[in-house]
Amino acid sequence: MRRAMRPYIALLSALLLQQSCKEQADTYRGWGVYGGSKENTHYSSLTAIDTSSVSRLAVAWTYSTGDKDTAHHSQIQCNPIIVNGLLYGLSPQLKVFALDAVTGKEHWVFSVRDSLSPAARKDFVLNNSRGVTYWTDAKNDQRIFFTAGSFTYCLNALTGKVVKGFGNNGRIDLHDGLDAAVADLYMTSTSPGIIYQDLLIMGSRVDEGAAAAPGHIRAFNVRTGKQEWIFHTVPKPGEPGYETWDDKEAYKNIGGANAWSGFSLDEARGIVFAATGSASFDFYGGKRKGNNLFANCILALNAATGKRIWHFQTVHHDVWDKDLPAAPSLVRIKKDGEWLDAVAQTTKTGYVFVLDRSTGKPLHPVEEKPVPAASLLEGEQLSPTQPVPLLPEPFVRQQFEIKDINTLVPESSYNEMKARWLTYNKGSQFTPPSRKGTIIFPGFDGGAEWGGPAFDPQTGILYVNANEMPWVLTMVDLQKKEPKGENYLEAGLRLYRSNCMNCHGKDKEGSGNYPALTAANKRYTEQQLIQLVTTGRRMMPGFAQLKEEEKKAIANYVLENKTTGQLPFTVSTERDSYRNLPFGTTGYNKFLTKEGYPAVAPPWGTLNAIDLGTGKFVWKIPFGDHPDFLKRGIRTGTENYGGSVVTAGGLLFIAATKDGKFRAFNKRNGKMLWETTLPAPGFATPATYEIKGRQYIVIACGGGKLGTTSGDTYMAFALPAGAQ
User: Fold this and answer.
1) How many CB atoms lie within 10 A of CB 368?
2) What percent of the chain has pLDDT over 70?
3) Which member of 43, 332, 484, 529 lies 3.0 to 4.6 Å from 524 by CB, making a disulfide possible if both were Cys?
């Protein structure tokens, strides 16, 4: 009897397993959350578009927001979400819209600027925003949350109308409830919050200079906007982590340590996961000695209360801007024959930390390795060790050695680069910042970037796109005391160097992604520039904490106003000791050849597939093409931003590079199967969804970074009607 039943039991087991797999797959069929799911894995179980059919993809619809700003390099970095047949996204000017996800037809649009009074519009701040958050009570209440400037808004998801009962007439000010006097400090949120039950959990983007607001993590009631809990990322007395700050008053004065890249959530365990950035000021830590918890940490918090469950610090006492660039990915891996729930964190350093999801213990060995700790900057005190995972293998080179200098340029250019290379401090990526210049490699933009990785639960493979661009960090002395007898131009130069030079360069020449100000007098009046300094714009923080006369002095210097600039400056601008730093930097400067190419040999951008169970590479390819070298048959890769999407159909979709291409790769071997040219580069993560059996893949084509033209288009692709 028992023998006779065995085939039926086996059949029943197979059917139950099939149903279990189907149910698991169904949770990944939509794209209703930033990053695809609350696990933040960028994974889709859809299979209608697969390796055999992807070559037939065609444009299904396009939508133009109509508000790009080419002059100011506006961008769209939004990963749209799709709920009940509507696609929700953001425009370059922070309009929120809902589209029919099948046709791209506009359903509604909400403009923050148009909703403000004429007086309030002049203070409206544009910031990069990477997505929106959806919530419903599973009945009739459906809401969209997003952040513009320092305000998080709540809209009716079906109509786009402001929900007046949320906060103060439909919005909350992120300055409120931070347990600190921060009303005049820059604060916004570039990544959307995440929903746990009736809570909206939020992080923030703050200034990275000395005048930074604290980066505390908070939860708000989705119905009322009331703040329900707060986790202090710079701990107060009596809180865990307080002992890692030598200065016991640091919690009153030090900002940053903010979760700017978003969150992931294990709903079954009730744990929200965050990744934090460095404490401020980014490049000098003499005012914040110690390891600085909870900066540069992977955090596991009780989602209902905000209480810390565990933390893991990836960089001690960060002075290299090694922010954790993306939210943790919640993964399930097979290691030594055992399935384990884990957290995978990609980093700018090129490491992947793989931790037990419940305890935070490393699942692969992590060693505290000695690093250079002798700083020549007075007052600095560096950590003698840094945590280094032995597995997975780093996905970018860890040092820029002499053998790595770019040889694709003429000999004279090579020799000039080599001569500069020899003058800089270099070696470990933890080589201290210096006055002579220190090579930062991997660079300020990674390694891994804010787009984050994609993880395939079918195979346990993590896909991460990465940069390999060397930068040079040069520290400079700042005036320690305010001199007497200054005029406005002299005071403006001093104030520019302490507030603006870190981004716009020592001589207003611009640096990194920040524009030059050498011709600002052709674009701005004095009053317009003062307004810009006050409010900021996109990646530029506002400096509302400065006195009006200080902002006027900066404007006189930047605009080279030699008339009013000669007037005596008599306003005291003395700051407290925390803001009055002894050092600044000459800006975010890439190490480039005379021709404008990276000083390091290719690849300059890569796409990597890593088995998280073994920690080994499955494949690695250059990602993106530089036209000057592609015509010579050389695949260099390029700098890249945004992230990828991996599907059960065997595909990896990604745009993300300055070459303007949108591509699909075979996820198993990295072979490119399809590419198309976008109207502007897609520096964003795509989204994929299915409606009535037809699968779509959509990408925001915003451009605006790396010198590319700005765009305002969302473009959706699908197989020809009926082909699926």
Assistant:
1) 12
2) 94
3) 529
Handedness of CA 622, 643, 276, 354 (dihedral sign): negative
- With CA atoms as reference, report the closest residue to 607 among 647, 648, 642, 650: 642
Task: List, in sequence order, the alpha helices (H) in 107-213.
Answer: 112-115, 118-121
d(CA 599, CA 423): 14
Long-range contacts of 547-551 (CB under 8 A, 24+ apart): 547/571, 547/573, 550/491, 550/495
pTM over 0.85: yes
Cα separations in angstroms, 76 against 127, 132, 303, 541, 575 = 10, 13, 30, 18, 37
Q: pLDDT tier at 12 (50, 70, 90 boundaries)?
A: very low
Q: What is the C-alpha separation between 309 and 301, in angstroms, rounded?
A: 5
Say what the pLDDT of residue 124 is: 82
* ∠ CA 64-664-340, rounded to 5°: 110
Interatomic CA distance for residues 102 and 698, integer angstroms: 11
Residues 575-609: pLDDT tens digits? 566 678 999 999 999 999 999 999 999 999 999 99
* String of DSSP letters for 607-664: EEEEETTTTEEEEEEE-S--HHHHTTT------B-S-EEEETTSEEEE--BTT-EEEE
C-alpha distance from residue 69 to each of 66, 190, 395, 403, 487 (Å):
10, 19, 35, 42, 36
608-637 b/e (C-beta count within 10 Å ≥ 16 → b):
bbbbbbbbeebbbbbbbbbeebeeeeeebb
Residue given tokens 């809902």 in the structure block: 98
List residues bridging with 688 in a β-sheet. Answer: 697
**Are 635 and 408 contacting, i.e. CB atoms less than 8 angstroms apart?**
no
- DSSP string over 51-73: TTTGGG-EEEEEEE-S---GGGT
- Sheet containing 227-231: which strands, arranged edge to edge? 194-196, 199-202, 217-221, 227-231
Task: Please compute the mean of the pLDDT values over residues 368-388 and round it to a whole number.
Answer: 97
What region does 590 belong to: left with phi over 0, alpha with psi -120 to 50, or beta? beta
Residue 626's pLDDT band (cuts 50, 70, 90): very high
pLDDT at site 490: 80
pLDDT in tens, 311-370: 999 999 999 999 999 999 999 999 999 999 999 999 999 999 999 999 999 999 999 999
Interior angle at CA 664, CA 67 and CA 100, nearest 5: 45
Residue 406, number of CB atoms within 10 A of its CB: 22
